[in-house]
User: Which sequence fits this backbone?
């Protein structure tokens, strides 16, 4: 069977930084540890006044195409996944193609372009679309550009404001990929939910506490659905477990449930039995509530064990390094988590070739998706090219008043203009409005 997967990845962060414990928490009169310890977040990346989902996506694509020596003719699809689109008809991929055509010879005339929407899971769904297109033999030796790009802003004062972020992840999906091969097996957990939505409005309506429960419920179903086709998952089967990461505290919860599920009826559960008992089984209880209470208590004991702590520190914690510094990038978030884990593996000289990752995506509304990936021999070279840490270093550190102005600038309902806080160089910038209300972009040398 043809090997299909992610050949290359590039990350572009918004150029501004909001320091959550240092700037945001004091201004809101909150304890900084709510951010660092509770949510697990240190900073949000935010877009400067000349940045948006198009500039960040196009800048990530440009870096990727140049590095891989790709021309527009090598690209048969451009799919953009976003929750931050500004046009209900013309897809963001056309704007991004227009940007790239300003700097590359040739054009994307014969590439199929689209826009995918299902909250944060749409980036993974776009990879699926590319995978299926290649597997169906419709790609004519070309690959697909998948761009997950979002300005994840919440209304000022909303509890979600703590988890904001902005950035883009560009990925090239091809045959014989250099980074990871995707499993044909997938699992889904999908239900009609109203936990987080944007009914024709820019900022989301969020039921934060419920969204956490829905994330966990759909994720459990996706794992079970995956196992029905891919066989039982065992915690030692995969080296990294990148989750959709709205904030690292969410992943901390999801990981404990994933571990509990995957050790059930294994030697790990038996080995832990002396220390914390065996997992409760529903048939031993008179009511579901009693069973769930017992499960909750077992999980509390489980996460305190060295066995769990070692697994979590090795397999999950490395996937959160970038997220702690950038916040939620919605569609890009799980792909940032994968890159973060692989970057940690490279820095620590792990031998990952041929090893597996389990990848857990999630979108509100709601749908979770689980698949596995096999790391390819070219992974080190691919990850070594990422310059995301330098980008994070270069971000402009916002004062609280500046943050307010930049939030207003990106608010479609206000007419605020602020001077950029950074100077664009060698990148696409938003350059005003065209005669039909379209957004215009220029490349700045
Ligand atoms: N020291 C240590 N920890 C502290 C603390 C302190 N001083 N103060 C608070 N905390 C802890 C709290 O105990 C809590 O941790 P636990 O949940 O483990 O108990 C954590 O910090 C957050 O505190 P709160 O629950 O009080 O925070 P909040 O009410 O401001 O809301 C939130 C948190 C609901 C996640 C909110 O940020 C939100 O609505 N976010 C947007 C929705 C979201 O991200 N949902 C996630 C699932 S949906 C999804 O994944 C899709 C998506 O991308 C949006």
Assistant:
């Amino acid at each position: 069977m043809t090997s299909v997967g992610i050949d290359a990845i590039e990350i572009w962060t918004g150029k501004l930084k909001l320091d959550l414990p240092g700037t945001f928490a004091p201004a809101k009169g909150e304890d900084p540890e709510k951010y660092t310890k509770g949510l697990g977040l240190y900073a949000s990346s935010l877009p400067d006044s000349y940045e948006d989902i198009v500039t960040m996506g196009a800048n990530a694509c440009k870096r990727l195409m140049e590095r891989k020596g790709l021309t527009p003719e090598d690209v048969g699809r451009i799919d953009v996944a976003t929750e931050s689109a500004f046009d209900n008809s013309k897809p963001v991929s056309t704007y991004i193609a227009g940007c790239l055509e300003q700097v590359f010879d040739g054009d994307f005339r014969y590439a199929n372009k689209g826009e995918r929407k299902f909250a944060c899971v749409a980036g993974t769904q776009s990879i699926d679309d590319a995978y299926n297109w290649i597997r169906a033999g419709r790609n004519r030796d070309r690959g697909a550009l998948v761009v997950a790009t979002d300005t994840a802003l919440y209304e000022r004062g909303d509890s979600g404001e703590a988890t904001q972020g902005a950035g883009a992840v560009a990925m090239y999906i091809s045959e014989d990929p250099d980074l990871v091969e995707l499993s044909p097996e997938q699992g889904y957990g999908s239900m009609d939910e109203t936990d987080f939505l944007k009914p024709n409005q820019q900022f989301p309506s969020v039921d934060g506490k419920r969204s956490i429960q829905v994330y966990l419920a759909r994720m459990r179903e996706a794992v079970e659905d995956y196992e029905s086709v891919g066989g039982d998952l065992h915690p030692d089967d995969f080296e990294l477990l990148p989750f959709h990461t709205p904030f690292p505290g969410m992943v901390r919860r999801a990981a404990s449930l994933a571990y509990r599920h995957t050790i059930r009826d294994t030697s790990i559960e038996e080995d832990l039995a002396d220390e914390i008992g065996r997992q409760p089984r529903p048939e031993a209880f008179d009511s579901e509530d009693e069973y769930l209470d017992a499960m909750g208590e077992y999980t509390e004991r489980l996460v305190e064990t060295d066995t769990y702590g070692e697994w979590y520190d090795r397999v999950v914690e490395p996937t959160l390094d970038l997220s702690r510094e950038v916040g939620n990038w919605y569609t890009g978030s799980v792909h940032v988590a994968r890159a973060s884990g692989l970057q940690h593996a490279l820095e620590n000289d792990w031998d990952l070739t041929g090893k597996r990752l389990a990848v857990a995506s999630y979108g509100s509304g709601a749908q979770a998706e689980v698949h596995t990936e096999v790391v390819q021999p070219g992974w080190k070279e691919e990850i070594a090219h990422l310059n995301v840490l330098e980008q994070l270093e270069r971000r402009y550190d916002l004062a609280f008043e500046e943050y307010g102005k930049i939030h207003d600038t990106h608010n479609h309902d206000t007419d605020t203009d602020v001077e950029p806080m950074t100077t664009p160089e060698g990148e696409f910038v938003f350059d005003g409005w065209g005669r039909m209300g379209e957004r215009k972009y220029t490349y700045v040398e």
In short: The chain has a mean pLDDT of 97.
